Amino acid sequence: MLTAIIDYESGNLHSAEKAFQRMASEVNAGDVVVTADPEVIAGADRLVLPGDGAFPACATALRTSGAFAAVVEAVEVKARPFLGICVGMQLMAREGLEYTPTEGLGWIDGVVERITPSDKHMKVPHMGWNDLVIDTPHPVLDGVATGEHAYFVHSYQMRVDTPAQRLAHVDYGGDVTAIVARDNMVGFQFHPEKSAATGLRMIANFLTWAP
Predict the structure, then answer these.
(1) Residue 13, Ramachandran bin (φ over 0: left; ψ between -120 and 50: alpha; else beta)
(2) Which domain holds residue 86?
(3) 50 closest CA partner among 206, 187, 178, 198
(4) How far apart are CA 21 and CA 39, in angstroms?
């Protein structure tokens, strides 16, 4: 079993790599590698797409990387389990509206737009710990309950047009999407590798998930 964390030069992957390697060892889920090699990605059993920065820059970096075609084939054709993290989750949307409208992967029926809290005193970016509210049960949420905390750093969020594709949200002057999923794909707006025991539990769940 091999989990590939995709390196397309859009984020610091060290902490994610360590967290996934730790949990893969604990649940006997094989090896975890950080890679940009299309052959390794094509042969991986599951994929993780992190992302830090602006949606347009990350979208361009992914689409122009040598890994892009292998990622799309693995997810869309081979139905490999896929996890997007932070901007990696946002790229799953139909479109991002950060700076300029930018096409996403179209895997989740939604648009990424700026967070606009109802309380104008609440700061954007949404940064720090927040309580998850579970909307839809899913295997990646086994053992995770409403009220558990996750760590967020973002100014934009995905507005999901199909409610069944939103697994969880948080309250930050209104609903902010936290987890999305469809078929063999799941996305976390927060950083599971920085979300203590709750985040590690969800990483372990992903590593053993068989959609």
Answers:
(1) alpha
(2) 2-208
(3) 187
(4) 20
Residue 74 · residue 80 · CB < 8 Å? yes
Q: Output the CA angle 92-94-96, nearest 5 degrees.
A: 85
In the chain, the number of structural domains is 1
- Are 163 and 132 in contact by the 8 Å Cβ rule? The answer is no
The pLDDT value recorded for residue 120 is: 86
Looking at residue 90, its pLDDT comes to 98
> Rounded to whole angstroms, how far apart are CA atoms 135 and 137?
7
Element containing residue 209 per DSSP (H, E): none
Nearest to 159, CA basis, from 126, 112, 124, 117: 112
Q: Which of 44, 83, 36 is nearest to 62 (CA)?
A: 36
Q: Answer yes or no: are the C-beta atoms of 192 and 83 closer than 8 Å.
A: no
**Residues tagged active-site:** 86, 191, 193
Which stretches in the chain have pLDDT values below 50? Answer: none
**pTM value > 0.85:** yes
Q: How many residues does the chain have?
A: 211
pLDDT at 26: 97
Query: What CATH number should be reported for the domain holding residue 143?
Result: 3.40.50.880
Residue 201 near residue 166 (C-beta atoms within 8 A): no
Quick one: three-class SS letters along 171-184? ECCCEEEEEEEECC
Beta strands at 110-114 and 156-160: parallel, antiparallel or unpaired: antiparallel
